[in-house]
Write a structure and sequence with these properties.
heterodimer, A: alpha/beta, Nucleotidyltransferase, domain 5, five-stranded mixed sheet, B: Nucleotidyltransferase, domain 5, 2 domains, 12 helices
């Protein structure tokens, strides 16, 4: 595979974008990246940030080989901002758009030990299957199971924290319900229990999948939950 | 080929994904994808379902509009999108897509007001809008009377519903009567078989204490309320059902419709008369209602007001209205909105376009 220029976007938690170069030896290099500090302004900040990082790197959209976008799971409204943005950019630039499970970004960081050490430091490398979990609200987490080298083995799912598999748990979801994790025989990994999906890692995860010969996903959201809608009483028993 | 600006407009404030392309006042494409069918079993628009459908429809709708207009994205002079008012999550999809197109093409982007666009669309059907213009907007989400001193920089809200929109009242009454969704067309049809004077349903906010006089206007002189009307219909239906009697559906439909249309047309004409508006534009999805058109025409004729109603495909939510208003805004020399603006679910009509937060 020749060197590729990839724009990665993920809004499953924060609004994030990154310009990543994938070298033909499999290395990935982050040329530019952006992560919003606000959690509720995706539609405001994402597009200007993407314009900014391309300008900074001196790259025109048409030069991109690919756009990859996090398909979630994550809060619906923010998630759609990333997907609508990526799809429209791909449409305008005539660049292919592919989806990647947003939790893959955290798994890639953990498996590749690409985490900035925080004050607590990072425990020994994870050498067994681990769970990535993020906040799904309603006392639930979105989670998926990964092998020690960061490959998706099960999920993603949404459910109560006491339903996650036993063993190590990383991602912001690991820090939310410690009692439930304990009940499941699972435990948060110190230093890795605040991670949220980020576009730069998502881009690297996408390159990893491509190198492994795996197909990326269709760029449509993984909602995992139905739209919250109840049929009103007066409509029940009637066929439209 | 004229020199007028070529504008692509995107609309996603409710359950219609619309992309329209205009050149000045000439309509080139008006592509609409609706999620209405998915809301039928709920009897009303479910925001999350509408938002999901917008994302699915956005790129195909864009492609189809460009194909229909026979133009390429790069030919467009400016982009426009509804920033509000509307459903937050739904607006967000259109705004995200529009901003992405602006980043990708480098074209200026205008964030425009959905309600003012319902007026601005008038230029596509009948040409330039007259001076001394009022607008009556009636839809599933809105019921407003506007005073248009300038389409591009001076619009005033004279009156609005304080609870349900008129179209929403139709949907709720249709649900009560087991008539399905949307309620407007079916009630309009049934009403023709019924007697509009059979039942005297309340005319909301019509009491003197709310209306006042032209000299001393009441607090709600030009405002509407349809919540009490809906409740009155529900009570009426329940009384019949409690007695085991068959509900006179056609008479209820006709009498309900008469109550809605009577108060809407009366207040609209009153507002026109009292504010020197000699011309009235009717917009919104309920503009298709036959009784509303008939009674409004009659009352406008009596009052010497000239009534204009764009064709139905331009009255319901669509992207062409966003493009049409933006074309007027561009021609007036208004600055684009930049890329940093937020959606505004409650955007007031006085904000016709959003200004660029980052402009010097």
């Amino acid at each position: 595979m020749v060197s590729m220029l990839i724009l990665a976007v993920d809004t499953s938690a924060l609004a994030t974008a990154a310009l990543v170069r994938a070298h033909d030896d499999g290395r990935t290099e982050v040329l530019e990246s952006f992560a919003a500090t606000e959690t509720n302004a995706h539609a405001e900040v994402l597009a200007p940030a993407i314009g900014g990082i391309l300008e900074q790197a001196g790259v025109a959209g048409g030069q991109l080989d690919r756009i990859v976008v996090g398909v979630g799971p994550g809060p619906f409204t923010g998630l759609r901002v990333g997907l609508a943005t990526a799809q429209a950019l791909g449409f305008a630039w005539q660049v292919p758009v592919d989806g990647v499970v947003s939790l893959d970004a955290i798994a890639w960081q953990v498996a590749h030990r690409a985490v900035e050490p925080d004050g607590a430091g990072i425990a020994a490398p994870i050498t067994e299957d681990f769970t990535v979990a993020i906040d799904a609200r309603r006392r639930e987490v979105y989670w998926a199971r990964y092998s020690a080298d960061g490959r998706l083995v099960d999920g993603p799912h949404v459910g109560a924290a006491d339903q996650v598999p036993a063993g190590p748990v990383v991602g912001i979801g690991a820090s939310l319900y410690p009692d439930a994790l304990e009940a499941a025989g699972a435990h948060a990994v110190p230093g890795l229990d605040r991670l949220q999906p980020q576009a730069a890692a998502l881009g690297a995860a996408a390159v990893g999948l491509l190198h492994a010969g795996e197909a990326l996903r269709t760029p449509v959201p993984l909602y995992l939950r139905e739209a919250d809608a109840k049929v009103p009483q007066a409509m029940k028993g009637r066929t439209a | 080929m004229s020199d007028a600006p070529l504008i692509l407009g995107i609309e996603s404030s409710c359950d219609e994904t619309g992309v329209g392309i205009v050149r000045g006042t000439e309509l080139l494409a008006n592509t609409v994808s609706t999620s209405m069918e998915q809301h039928v079993r709920f009897g009303g628009v479910i925001p999350e379902i509408a938002s999901r459908a917008h994302l699915e429809a956005m790129v195909p709708t864009l492609q189809q509009a460009l194909d229909t207009a026979g133009v390429a994205l790069d030919d467009v002079d400016a982009l426009a999108v509804t920033s509000g008012p509307g459903l937050s999550g739904a607006l967000m999809v259109g705004v995200a897509a529009a901003k992405a197109l602006a980043v990708a093409t480098g074209k200026p982007l205008y964030a425009v007001n959905h309600l003012v666009a319902h007026v601005g669309v008038g230029v596509l059907d009948g040409g330039e809008l007259p001076d001394r213009l009022g607008a009556l907007l009636v839809s599933g989400g809105h019921t407003e009377i506007l005073k248009i001193d300038s389409l591009t920089d001076d619009v005033e809200l004279l009156g609005a519903t304080i609870d349900d929109a008129a179209g929403e009242a139709y949907d709720k009454v249709a649900r009560l009567l087991g008539l399905g969704y949307p309620g407007g067309p079916v009630i309009d049809r049934l009403a023709k078989e019924g007697d509009g004077k059979a039942i005297r349903f309340p005319r909301g906010l019509s009491l003197p204490k709310f209306v006042g006089t032209a000299e001393a206007p009441g607090k709600h002189r030009y405002d509407f309320s349809f919540s009490g009307l809906k409740t009155a219909v529900a009570r009426f239906v329940e009384q019949y059902q409690a007695k085991g009697l068959e509900v006179p559906v056609a008479d209820v439909a006709a009498s309900f419709q008469e109550a809605v249309v009577d108060v809407i047309t009366k207040k609209a004409v009153m507002a026109c008369t009292e504010h020197g508006m000699e011309n009235l534009l009717l917009g919104g999805g309920v503009a298709a209602n036959s009784r509303l058109r008939q009674l409004l025409q009659a009352r406008c004729d009596s009052a010497g007001i000239s009534l204009r109603i764009p064709k139905p495909s331009l009255c319901t939510d669509n992207g062409a209205m966003i493009a049409a208003l933006a074309a007027q805004v561009v021609a007036a020399g208004v600055a684009p909105s930049g890329l940093g603006f937020a959606t505004d679910p409650g955007q007031p009509v006085t904000q016709i376009t959003l200004s660029d937060l980052h402009a010097a």
